[in-house]
Specification:
Helices cover about 65% and strands about 0% of the residues. The protein is mainly α.
């Protein structure tokens, strides 16, 4: 699960860097508004990449994993309204 997240984050951030570099190295020579638009798109990518890289997938179990302590797990299950295991 972590490899998938890292790979997706890497590709999104790589695209962000590529947009910035190409906007100011190449595209600005032909069209300044296009370069600015590319930078605005690149500006939105980092927060989106962080959200997508940290989202919980269907196979991920973060908060509902048992802790290993049977008394604590039974107590939390009772609070959550779960049936005992």
């Amino acid at each position: 699960m972590y490899a998938r997240r890292r790979r997706g984050y890497f590709w999104m951030m790589g695209g962000c860097v590529a947009l910035f570099v190409s906007a100011w190295a190449v595209v600005r020579l032909w069209s300044m508004p296009a370069a600015v638009a590319m930078c605005l798109v690149a500006m939105v990518i980092p927060p989106v990449a962080a959200v997508l890289a940290n989202r919980r997938g269907p196979e991920d179990r973060w908060w509902d994993d048992p802790s290993g302590d049977p008394n604590s797990d039974a107590w939390w299950d009772e609070l959550d309204g779960k049936k005992p295991r």
